[in-house]
Amino acid sequence: MTTLQSLRERASARGQSATRPAHTSAEEARRRRRITVTLGILAVLCLAGIIAYLTYDVRGSWDYAMDLRGRQVGSLVVVGAAVGASSLVFQTIAGSRILTPSVMGFDALYLLVQTIVVFFFGGTAFMMMGVGERFLLNTVVLTVFGLLLFRWLFGRNSRNLLVLVLVGIVIGSLFGSLTSLASRVLSPDDFLTLQDVMFASFNTVDGALLWVAAAVCAVGVVALVPLLRYLDVVDLGHDNAVALGAPYHRVVTLTLAVVTVLVAVSTALVGPMLFLGLIVANLARQIIPTHRHTELVLGSMLVGVLCTVGGQFVVGHLMDNGTTLSVVVNLVGGIYFILLLMRTVKL
Amino acid sequence: MITVRNVSHRYDKQVVLNEVGLTLPVGELTSIVGANGAGKSTLLSVVSRLIKPESGTVFIDDLDVQTAGDDAISRRLAVLRQDNRISARLTVVDLVRFGRFPYSKGRLTPEDHRLVDEALDYLDLQPFRDRFLDQLSGGQRQRAYIAMILAQDTDYILLDEPLNNLDMKHSSSMMTLLRRAADELGKTIVLVLHDINFASCYSDHIVAMRDGEVIVQGTPTQIMRRDVLREVFDMDIHVQDLNGVRLGIFWTTGAPVGPGPLAAEAGDTTRDEDGARRVAEPASITIR
Questions:
Q1: How far is residue B252 CA from its own chain's centroid?
Q2: How close does chain A come to B219, measured CA to CA in Å?
Q3: Of A78, A124, A240, B84, whose CB is crowded by the most CB atoms within 10 A?
Q4: Structure confidence at residue A344 (pLDDT)
Q5: Residue B12 at interface with chain A, using a CB cutoff of 8 Å
């Protein structure tokens, strides 16, 4: 009893003085500790989710289940982390909490690319292409067009938020109309092929592809690391960032390039998840109340993994694939998006 | 010294700065005044390289702001634009620490922390250091921004309408503070101001702009004259000397109001807004 008490006292004394630098108040130290704890809990939850996903109700061959589920959970983790990181930093450079790559028309672009390929080469050729080639094609095309799209959006003089949202919606519906026009003239067989890739699917991901995607995303996230402390300043807006000597345009351009690659790879891997980034990034900002992007990006990646793995666990295991994850994400995210818009416009 | 040479700038086809040339002396508080759209804010943005002008150059001492590089300029000149809507979750001390970014790039040294504390002390912000910005009043938030600017520890400080959204009390204490920073810390301070009387009371030097050009500049005594102000603002403003301070009576055009000084106090008659005469209340009013 006494030892426990003295231990506790020593621990609290350490918390108040020894670990706290002189220039940080107790309040600030407490806040930072709470953020670290939150990140730790998120990491544990992610790990628990992954283990639960792998081991829940395994029937028949353990090896087979591990192989299939391992690939599934691997792609969920890659997509969750990539979407989490990219959406969060995109919000920062866009200077808005309701803009994510998907909202700005990236998913619509993906669908358009698929449709055009099927339209010009036919469904059989599309399926014959092999997953590797298709992945490569998608990634390259999405990266190139994504860079052009974002470059154009960010190069404009007017950075009015509502104008940008409107532009995103217009681009989205333009691409959407083109997609539906092209799909209308397709043969029924080709159309079926197309429908297959139109929704995100985690059930059948090629193993080799997963490794490539994971590697590219890892490189992307590592490339973000030196940018993080500059993103802290960029979050203050263009004028303040320039005034404080941050190389604003270089940071925005580099970040945009990384974001485009991350989104392109994760979309090419599993398909579009329109509102996932929006939910994940805003959720992360809510539970991690800081401006430091090191913690924000890490938190957003963890929340992303938790959302995809947890969501797919519920949809796949508990609901027995009664619906798909992307449908659930779009439903929840769509409502959330409307709420965010209403809250912002009310100002 | 800030030297502006032949600076011109346009937004689309609209000329906002037309061949502006200007030198601003060191260690003084300079106010830029003029009507809306005269080009004041644009000039401030060009000087602080937030906007690249179509033509012309700006020098801070011997540095060309467009070519000198981020570090060199941001260690010599700090600027604060009006309406800073920051969406990041920032506490006061977080914000002030950003003032050290030009030096430490986010990795603060003990020296940086000392300067941050000094800036917080200077603006009496220590009690609020751990408050989030959105939990502060307008006046406190403005002070937090000024503390960030002071932590940047630059010789030159440029502020675009620092009195925006401040009430009377906070406006005058902000101006007193800036005056102190010029006098005690030897800063060169350039402000864009809308209220000519604040400019008159606190500046060493006033620059008056109209239609994208600097039309006149000088000491408050030289600028605060009916004929000069008419040229600048296109408004007939009566100027009153009050114990050596010149005040422009711009609330009513042309002349001071009423029959004489503090007429109401003598129990005299005044006019209502609708023009009806009424007898004023006696001078004594109970204030709770």
A1: 24
A2: 29
A3: A78
A4: 66
A5: no
